[in-house]
Amino acid sequence: MAKKKFDFAELTTQELHEKLIDDKVRLSKMKFNHTVSPLDNPMEIKFLRRDIARIYSELNKRETETTAS
Asked: CA-CA distance, 44 to 65, in Å (whole number)?
C-alpha cells in the first residue's frame, strides 16, 4: 500500500525549516550508508530528495506571497 503524502502546507514556517534541516541530515546519512553497504530500499533516497524539494517549494511559495503583499 502506498504511503500517504505529507501535507507541508499545514506546517508553520519554523517547522518547515526544522524539518528541512532534519531531512538534509537524514539524506546525507542515508547516502553514506548506501555507499558503504546497500540499503534495503534504495528508493528511500529518491523519496527523501523529493520531500526536500517539496519543502523548498512550499517555503518559496510562502516567501513569494509575503513579498507580493
From this structure: 32
Q: Nearest to residue 27, comparing CAs of 58, 62, 53?
A: 53
How many residues are given for the chain?
69
Q: How far apart are CA 40 and CA 19, in angstroms?
A: 24
pLDDT of 4: 60
3-state secondary structure of 67: helix
Contact 21, 52 (CB under 8 A): no
pTM for the model stands at 0.86
Q: H or E element: which one contains 68?
A: helix 43-68
